[in-house]
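User: GH18 domain-containing protein, Actinacidiphila oryziradicis:
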Amino acid sequence: MPSAANAAAGSLPQVYGAWHCGDDACTWATVRDMANFDQNNHWLIDRGDGRPSVNLVVLSFVNPLTLLNGTTNSGNTGGVPVGMNQAVVNYFTSHGIRVMLSIGGISYTNDWDTALAQNPTLLGQRAAALATQLGVGIEIDYEQSTTPNTTGLQSFINSYRAAHPYDASGADSTARLTLDVAAGDRWLIALDQYATTNWLTPANPVLDYANAMVPSKQPSASSAESNWQEHISGKPTYSPPIPPLAPAKFTGGLYIAGSSQVLPECDNFASSLQNATGTWTQNAAPAGAGTTTGLLGYMFWAAERPSTRGVTTDPPNSCEGGVGAGATAFNVPLPMPALRQS
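Assistant: Predicted structure for GH18 domain-containing protein:
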């Protein structure tokens, strides 16, 4: 068993999930044939011994402006990609895997801006109704790096929380509301500062947690740890400063697909970054926020076909040997338990 799986006194990952882009580079614009879907994604529900490789799948992406407008066209019904349907959600939940939908992504940044300017309260209501309809949680992926509309996003969150209040127990899937931030504190600075100050404090949590997204390319183990440490330490010299983030309030992101070759993070746990960083992520100490050691877990970008170029996680490149083996090594809980709160 790799040493990272036995990190002394650390906190084992509670969140161990994959963003999922479907077979069309994250648009989910067609209804899937579920036999084909299972062929391409079976590794997610079976690491080789009948147990899932992950305890969370985040279907990516819903266009926020399309959702606000309730658009129906060739790829959407009532503002929701037609591929993000109950059959796909049930495919995962029937195996004890939590499902969320991600609203946004880098391609929809301008649409986030427009939607938040037009009617953020209605957008929050429609996101909440979508969560109720499918029995899922919602992830906010708003990658505005210069002037994010935090006032509008606050209204969106208030509206969502009016329908689905914060639930520390984790029992209500629709109450799970998360936010994506950059790999470290040096991008999405204004959003990071506002979220860490207002939404991610252990004493008064508004969002469940944040995901530190992948950087522009797969990092080294030391670079990944350095990025994640920035969130834990904060940036006191920034104006306004970014306060420290509790380790229990975020996950770290790694690539599993989209590069020119199959990555060990997908198919070789012993050589993977989740293995190399495992001891650090389980033992990362609070540096001004929180009381428990260890990040909340890992998120992997991304299942099936995250881009039109590069390898996918379709067979024979499926990820039982990397992500799945990591689930075994880290003793990832299935289903996801109540998360650490501080």
